[in-house]
Design a protein that fits this description.
single chain; 324 residues; mainly beta; Methylamine Dehydrogenase, Chain H; 5-stranded mixed beta sheet; 4-stranded antiparallel beta sheet; 2 helices; 29 strands; 49% strand
C-alpha cells in the first residue's frame, strides 16, 4: 500500500486552481509504443530515476533493501544493506556511479557499476532528504529539509547552504553547466540560486502558494520548475518568470526533465500520462496501463524519455515518439 500512500500525499498537495492558457493535445495511445519493465518483486515501488552516460537507467525502490537498474534491456535488482525510506533523490555522475538519498543511513550513498556501496553520513540524528543532482564536476547536490539546507558533497566534504526563508522547505535541486545550483523552496514559494562562489539569491514566485517542487535547467540556461499547487510549469529566464497552465482536472504534476531539443517533460500522476511542453503547447502521452502513476522522469543520451511508475513499473517512451 506504500505506493498508494505516496500518490495520495501528492494528490492532496495539489489543489489545482484552474487555468488553461496552454494548448493541449492528447495523443492516441495506439500510435505510441512504450517499453515497460515490471518490477521483479510485487511490492517494489520505483520512486526516482536517472540515466547514466552509458545508457544504464538507475532507479530507487521505496521500502526495499535494493536499488534497481535497466542495463542491456535487462531489469536488475541490486541489494542494499538495509531498506531505504522515501528515496526520492537520485543522480548519476559522469563516471556512471549512482548517487542516492539514503534516509536509513542518515546520509548520501553511492553505488558503482559493480554494486559496491559507499555511504557518507550527514552527522545529524534525523534526516529528511529531497531531490538530488550530480554536477558535471562530480559534486553531489541535494536538499535537506531537516537542516533547511541545499547541501553539496564534493571530495568527501559536506558544505551546507542554509537560506533564511519564511517556511523554506527545500525540495528540488538542479545544477547548470556553469556550476550554478538551483533549488525550490516549497513552503517559501521561491526559487533559490546558489552561485559557484556560494552567494545565494531568492526569487519569489509570481503566484502565491504555488508549491514549487521539481526543477531542471535547460541547455540555454532557462530554469524550469513544477508549480504543483497551481497546476503549472514555470520558467525563469533572464530573471523574469513565465508560467504555463497545464489543462486538465488536477493531473498532479511531478518529475521534470528538459531534453536537448528544449522540450520540457513531466509526469501527470493522477491522469497516468507524460506531458511535454513545447512553445506553449502541452502534448500528453497516455501510458499503456490503467492505474499508471509516473512520478519521476529522466532522459537518456539517445533522447528516450524514462519514467518511474509507482504502480510497479519502469518505462520508456522511445525517442522516435518523444521527438517533437
Amino acid at each position: 500500500m506504500r505506493r498508494w500512500r505516496l500518490w495520495l500525499a501528492a494528490a492532496a498537495m495539489a489543489a489545482a486552481l484552474g487555468g488553461g492558457a496552454a494548448w493541449l493535445l492528447h495523443l492516441d495511445r495506439s500510435s505510441v509504443r512504450f517499453v515497460e519493465y515490471r518490477m521483479l518483486q510485487s511490492l517494489d515501488t520505483p520512486t526516482a530515476i536517472a540515466a547514466a552516460p552509458d545508457g544504464t537507467i538507475w532507479f530507487t525502490i521505496d521500502l526495499a533493501a535494493a536499488i534497481g537498474r535497466v542495463r542491456g534491456e535487462q531489469l536488475e535488482r541490486l541489494p542494499l544493506a538495509s531498506k531505504n525510506v522515501d528515496p526520492i533523490g537520485l543522480g548519476v555522475g559522469p563516471d556512471g556511479d549512482a548517487w542516492y538519498t539514503d534516509n536509513s543511513a542518515r546520509g548520501i550513498s553511492r553505488m558503482t557499476a559493480s554494486g559496491e556501496i559507499t555511504s557518507f553520513p550527514l552527522g545529524t540524528p534525523i534526516v529528511r532528504l529531497g531531490r538530488l543532482a550530480v554536477a558535471i564536476d562530480g559534486a553531489v547536490w541535494f536538499t535537506e529539509a531537516t537542516s533547511y539546507s541545499i547541501t553539496r558533497l564534493k571530495e568527501r566534504e559536506i558544505t551546507r547552504h542554509v537560506f533564511e526563508s519564511p517556511g523554506g522547505d527545500p525540495y528540488g535541486v538542479a545544477v547548470a553547466e556553469d556550476g550554478t545550483a538551483w533549488a525550490t523552496l516549497r513552503v517559501g514559494n521561491q526559487l533559490l540560486r546558489i552561485a559557484p562562489d556560494g552567494e545565494m539569491s531568492a526569487f519569489d514566485l509570481p503566484k502565491p502558494a504555488a508549491g514549487p517542487s521539481d526543477v531542471a535547467v535547460g541547455l540555454d540556461g532557462s530554469v524550469w520548475f513544477v508549480e504543483v499547487r497551481a497546476n503549472r510549469i514555470g520558467r525563469l529566464r533572464n530573471d523574469a518568470f513565465e508560467e504555463y497552465d497545464v489543462p486538465g482536472d488536477n493531473p498532479v504534476l511531478t518529475g521534470l526533465a528538459v531534453a536537448r531539443d528544449g522540450a520540457v517533460w513531466f509526469g501527470m500522476l493522477r491522469s497516468g500520462s507524460l506531458g511535454r511542453l513545447v512553445d506553449g503547447r502541452v502534448d500528453t502521452f497516455k501510458l499503456p496501463r490503467d492505474g499508471a502513476r509516473p512520478c519521476s522522469l529522466a532522459i537518456d543520451t539517445s533522447g528516450n524519455v524514462w519514467y518511474a511508475d509507482i504502480s510497479g513499473y519502469v518505462g520508456m517512451l522511445p525517442m522516435r515518439y518523444a521527438h517533437r
